[in-house]
Design brief:
Layout (H helix, E strand, L loop, with lengths): L6 H4 L5 H9 L5 E2 L12 H14 L1 H5 L8 H15 L6 E6 L2 H12 L5 E6 L3 H9 L3 E8 L2 E2 L1 H10 L3 E6 L13 H14 L2 E5 L24 E6 L11 E6 H14 L5 H13 L2 H26 L5 E2 L7 E5 L6 H10 L2 E2 L1 E2 L13 E5 L5 H18 L2
Parallel strand pairs: 1-12, 3-4, 3-6, 6-7, 7-8
Antiparallel strand pairs: 2-9, 4-5, 8-9, 10-11, 11-14, 13-14
Helix pairs in contact: 3-11, 6-7, 6-10, 12-14
Length: 396
């Protein structure tokens, strides 16, 4: 039988990163491709104890349906933490617990974007978000990212040249895939540009807590006095990604529609993970866990950068992030990192080709993304050595 796929999904592609994971499953392959947190840092024993207690003492709450907005104590704990750590939240804001930050992005798109509407994105940008926008028929318009964030002159040009702009999507802190952080000055100017033009901002901040030196850059949402910023956060990088817990803080009118959209999608975020996160924050020191993550990733990032300095061709450029999980590398010389990935796979090492993160994924790209969070120090160094061999050969 021949099956007809909807127009919305017929042109959509699966994540290239997920495809690369198929190679990464081979234990002889060194994966510098994923974006997974280090599993050694998961508080598994604590969560196991909490789960046993919750299921014994509160089985109905854990196993019964919940409300779409999220488990009340968890929502209050998130609001309190956002207020304390980020200065986020006004009387005009509300918050919903979602099934990972990805769902928050998808639900916002579902509520705000009509087919043909424009969504402005950083280029490169997170493929999970860009695919969400594509799936609702949005026209993606990219703005180049510099060492201190989005090129705002280019942004103003894009705004002048396009109509029906629904929102600007940005990952301003330790951006995925580049690892760069938008300066405070640019954050303020971006906010002013959006306000002047009547455009919303969707600020995605899954990596903001993972600052190596402990110094946090103010979020754009913390500057929001006019109700134009939607803020997506997640427990995936600071607790455990398998819990699939995220949250969206935005103006009440928007959250009200997101609640309806989520009811249609999955009714509510699973209750047991919500209880686990709530009790973990109540019983344990989440900040102490995050500190361990910061120290671990800072070490791994330094290890990778040192290996790159030693083994990579000297005319290759790459970012030096102050946090997060990623390094962005540009080979230049009109090379195609998608094609070159075959040579890397032959050397038993994988990365994510840069075209994956672009508005036009079919266009040749000389850049690639590297991840340092999951591999051991030895595998990081060996993986970079193998890539260095591939890159030297390609540049001959």
């Amino acid at each position: 039988m021949e099956y007809t796929i909807s127009n919305r999904m017929s042109t959509m592609r699966g994540s290239a990163i997920r495809e690369i994971f198929k190679y990464a499953a081979d234990p002889s392959v060194i994966s510098l491709a994923g974006g997974n947190p280090n599993p050694e840092l998961f508080p598994a024993e604590a969560l196991a104890d909490i789960a046993a207690k919750v299921l014994h003492e509160s089985p109905v709450t854990a196993l019964q349906y919940g409300i779409t907005e999220g488990y009340g104590p968890l929502r209050e704990a998130i609001k309190a933490r956002l207020d304390r750590t980020e200065g986020i939240g006004t009387e005009n804001d509300d918050l919903i617990v979602v099934s990972g930050g990805q769902q928050g992005i998808e639900l916002v798109t579902k509520c705000l974007v009509n087919e043909g509407d424009v969504v402005i994105v950083e280029e490169p940008s997170f493929i999970g978000a860009t695919n969400a926008f594509r799936s609702y028929g949005a026209k993606l318009v990219g703005v180049p990212v510099e060492s201190d964030g989005m090129n705002l002159d280019a942004l103003e040009k894009v705004i002048a040249e396009n109509k029906n702009i629904r929102f600007i999507y940005t990952i301003p802190t330790f951006q995925n895939p580049m690892g760069v952080t938008m300066s405070v000055e640019k954050r303020k100017k971006l906010y002013d540009i959006a306000l002047k033009n009547g455009i919303l901002i969707l600020e995605d901040n899954p990596y903001g807590e993972l600052t190596f030196d402990g110094v946090k850059t103010p979020t754009i949402k913390s500057m929001d006095k006019d109700g134009i910023v939607m803020y997506s956060g997640s427990f995936s990088k600071i607790l455990a990604p398998g819990l699939r817990l995220g949250f969206l803080c935005a103006p009440r009118e928007i959250i009200a529609k997101v609640v309806v959209a989520k009811q249609i999608s999955d009714v509510h975020t699973p209750m047991l993970p919500q209880l686990l996160a709530t009790e973990y924050m109540a019983q344990f020191d989440l900040d102490a866990l995050i500190l361990k993550m910061r120290e671990n990733y800072a070490h791994k990032c330094s290890t990778m950068l040192s290996a790159m300095d030693e083994y990579f061709p000297k005319d290759i450029t790459y970012t030096r992030p102050g946090g997060g999980l990623f390094i962005w590398c540009d080979l230049g010389h009109d090379l195609d990192t998608l094609e070159l990935s075959k040579a890397a796979i032959a050397e038993k090492v994988v990365y994510v080709p840069g075209n994956t993160f672009m508005v036009d994924m079919d266009k040749k790209c000389s850049s690639l993304r590297l991840n340092y969070s999951t591999m051991s120090d030895e595998k990081i160094v060996e993986g970079i050595r193998r890539l260095g061999t591939v890159f030297h050969q390609a540049l001959k």
